[in-house]
Each structure stands twice: as structure tokens, then as C-alpha cells.
Specification:
CATH topology of the largest domain: Umud Fragment, subunit A
Shape: elongated
Organism: Methanosarcina flavescens
Enzyme class: hydrolase
Main location: membrane
Order of helices and strands: HHEEHEEEEEEH
EC number: 3.4.21.89
Largest sheet: 6 strands, antiparallel
CATH class of the largest domain: Mainly Beta
Number of domains: 2
Protein name: Signal peptidase I
Strand content: 15-25%
Length: about 180
């Protein structure tokens, strides 16, 4: 009996491909389980984004990983509504949303706070231009670098964020883990 065990362990040691195959299958299984869990819990196959800029400081830092819940699973609460109801997310009123500027695929999504919603034909801000359609006015939390709404600058110039541009809302933050992703991009 002792010889057989010794013999089997020698055979496994002699064939590194078997060990590598098992390791790869384990990694693939864990990834599949994670993706299925992500889809069930957050409504997205890949519910995480790495923060790439300081526009949301001090509430989100460069290198943080942010978990996102799909837009079709949440009711977005704006900063304006949050002030009235007491709802806070990431240490300030209202939801932080992840959206595609101008709805374009293939561009880096923006993660900023939904400040308020405007209807078509309303001024987008006091004495501002008229909104061409209904949508959200957004802004980063960093009071030093984000003194204007996204719609006043290059991010979404004079275009409120349409519902269909929104990927989801920020739910959780894991500090520093996103540096790994940023390193490879």
C-alpha cells in the first residue's frame, strides 16, 4: 500500500502538465462562479471599475475598485433628492453613477455624482443653456478640480446624461486594488 502511494505521487510529480491543467481549471471555475455571482448580485458580468482620476476625491481615490449595480436594478437618487430625504452614498447626498459620455461605446466611462435631473426645455443650471432632452446633470465630488458640472465642460458638453447612457450606480469601494488594473492598461 505504501509503495502504491509513493508510485502515484512520483507519477504526478513527473507530469507537470497534469498539475498545470488542474490549476487552470480551478482558476476558470472560480472566474465562472464569480461572473455568475456578479450577474445575479449586481446585474452586470463585470461589476467593477478602477478609479482612474481624482475627480471623486475625497470619497473615491485613484486606484480604488468600485462595485457597480446595474442601472436597471436601481432607482437613481440625485444629490438634490438625497438632501431632501437624507439618502447618502459615498459620504455625500445622492447616488454616484457610472455612465458613457454621449452614450459612446469604447470610451472610458465617467463615475460622478448625479446632482439633479432636468426635463427637456428647462435650463440645465441657473442662467444656463436649455436642455435638449431630459437627463441628469453630473459632477465629480472634488471641490478643487471639479468646480463645474460635467455638462459645462468637455465631459458631456451641454448634454444631460440620458438614462440609456447610465451603466449603473456605485455600491462599494475597495481601496488600492484597482492599481493592478491601472498598471496593465
Amino acid at each position: 500500500m505504501r509503495e502504491i502511494n509513493k508510485e502515484n505521487s512520483v507519477q504526478e510529480q513527473e507530469n507537470p502538465w497534469v498539475s498545470l491543467g488542474k490549476d487552470l481549471l480551478s482558476v476558470v471555475a472560480v472566474l465562472i462562479i464569480f461572473m455568475v455571482f456578479s450577474k445575479l448580485a449586481f446585474g452586470l458580468w463585470t461589476p467593477m471599475v478602477a478609479v482612474e482620476s481624482g475627480s471623486m476625491e475625497p470619497h473615491m481615490q485613484v486606484g480604488d475598485i468600485i462595485f457597480i449595480k446595474s442601472a436597471d436594478r436601481v432607482d437613481i437618487i440625485t444629490n438634490e433628492e438625497g438632501k431632501n430625504t437624507g439618502y447618502m452614498s459615498f459620504e455625500d447626498y445622492g447616488d454616484v453613477i457610472l455612465y458613457r459620455p454621449y452614450g459612446e461605446e469604447g470610451v472610458t466611462p465617467i463615475i460622478h455624482r448625479a446632482m439633479y435631473r432636468v426635463d427637456a426645455g428647462e435650463p440645465m443650471w441657473e442662467n444656463g443653456p436649455i436642455a435638449p432632452y431630459s437627463g441628469y446633470i453630473t459632477k465629480g465630488d472634488n471641490v478643487i478640480t471639479n468646480t463645474h458640472f460635467d455638462q459645462e465642460g468637455q465631459i458631456s458638453y451641454e448634454m444631460p446624461v440620458k438614462d440609456e447612457w447610465i451603466i449603473g450606480t456605485a455600491q462599494y469601494r475597495i481601496p488600492y486594488v484597482g492599481y493592478v488594473r491601472l498598471f496593465f492598461s
